[in-house]
Amino acid sequence: MTGVETTTSSSLASLVHAAHRDIGGLFDLAGGDFAGIAGLDGVGRRGEARAADPRLTLHASDAAVAAFSAHLSVMEDVVYPAAAVVVPDGRARTAALRGTAREAAAVMRGLQQYVQGDRYHPRRGPSGLRDELAELARAHSLVEDRLLRDLEARLDAARLRRLRENVERGMRRAPTRPHPHLGHGASRRSRLAARLAGRWDHVLDIVDARVVAGRPVRAPAPAGLWGWYLLGRPTSDEIAPGQDHPVE
After folding, report:
1. By residue range, what is the domain housing residue 231?
2. pLDDT 10s digits, 125-142
């Protein structure tokens, strides 16, 4: 394979780089120290971002877990299989990245338990889990960036463009919750399991009314007859045009 021009070869790397930056920014809002992750230096404005509402920390942690879970799953499903057969020592390098992803998923599972109020959450507090996740994210992003540079140097523009498109497409259906024991293998069966987990996660997100970054927010459905009755409000045809409530 031949190298490609800078504008094309940087496209996949820039996409992943942006993902690292966004995920780090979310964890930064949640209180984790992510300084040193590629592209995240100078992001730290935790004192400004964490307002008086302490719920922001939990919301940011949940959003970061969703984004990081999706990123790891898509990289394992789309990019690592290509890198394993193209870059030098690709199988060993991608296997190491999968191992780090599995560790990160286990830590994120602990964070998610705190967010959800699970009584069986880990003994370590959220701050300790975020610090551990920061270390894993630093190591993972550095190794992943080097892998992408080697991959771009060996693929042509068309293949890189397809990889980027597949990554973008995969993000729309990727798991939004951590799965430490699922989807971290190199086999097709493992990748299929991750995709199925993603579908189930999306169902849970809808049931929980969970807002996930990058996903459209569904508008609430209008209340029907039973809805109006349970809310103790009149049906819409009993309200005059331009009025929110009936005339007393």
Report:
1. 221-248
2. 888 888 888 889 888 999
CB neighbour list of residue 95: distance below 8 Å, 6 or more residues apart: 186
How far is the C-alpha of 244 from the C-alpha of 97, rounded, in Å?
Answer: 56
Is 28 part of a structural domain of the chain?
Answer: yes
Statement: residue 31 has pLDDT above 80? no
* pLDDT tens figures, 185-207: 989 999 999 999 999 999 998 88
Return the CA Rg of the chain: 22
Direct distance between the N- and C-terminal alpha carbons of the chain, in angstroms, rounded to an integer: 77
Q: Would you say 40 and 24 are in contact if contact means Cβ atoms under 8 Å apart? A: yes
Residue 246 near residue 238 (C-beta atoms within 8 A): yes
Tokens of 120: 């069986």
Q: How far apart are CA 233 and CA 179, in angstroms?
A: 43
On whether both 152 and 225 belong to a single domain, the answer is: no
Residue 239 and residue 163 share a domain: no
Q: State how far the Cα of 56 lies from the Cα of 74, in Å rounded to an integer.
A: 27
Nearest of 43, 231, 16, 2 to residue 134 by alpha carbon: 43
Whether residue 237 sits in one domain with residue 160: no
How many other C-beta atoms can be found within 10 angstroms of the C-beta atom of residue 40? 23
DSSP label of 177: S
Q: Tell me the whole-structure pTM to 2 decimals.
A: 0.75
Is 109 inside any structural domain? yes
- DSSP line for 201-223: HHHHHHHTT---TTSPPPPPPPP
Cβ proximity of 183 and 191 under 8 Å:
yes
Residue 153 gets which letter from DSSP? Answer: T
> By C-alpha distance, which of 26, 13, 20, 36 is closest to 135?
36
DSSP string across 95-110 = HHHHHHHHHHHHHHHH
